[in-house]
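Thread: "does anyone have the structure for this chain?"

Original post by V.I.:
We have the sequence but no experimental structure in hand. Need at least a predicted one for the grant figures.
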Amino acid sequence: MCINFENLELFMYLIIGLLILALAGALLIRRDFITILVSIELLLLVSIIMLLIYTSRSHLIEGQLFTLFILVIAAAESSIILATIYNYYHANERIDIASLENDN
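Reply from O.Q.:
Generated one for you, C-alpha cells below.
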C-alpha cells in the first residue's frame, strides 16, 4: 500500500481548518465582546484557509483574488469594530454585552 503524501498534506490542512473552526465556535458562546470579535476573525481565517486549499489544488486565480478580497473586508471590519468599541468605552466607561443588549 502506497501513501499519497499530497492527499495527506491536504487532509492535514483540512483538519487544521476544522480545529480552528471548532475553536471559533467554542469562543462564540462566551459573553465577552472581544472574544466574540476574535472568534469572528477566526471564522474568516478558516474560510480563507479552506479557499486557499481548494484554489491551490485546482490552480484557479479567481479563488486567490477572492481570498485577498476577504482579507480586505476582514481588515475593514476590524478597524470599524475597534473604533466603535473605543467610542462606546469612552462614553460609558465599561463594555458589557448585557448592557449592549439593553441600550436600545
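V.I.: this helps a lot. The mean pLDDT is 76.
O.Q.: and DSSP finds four helices and no strands in the chain.
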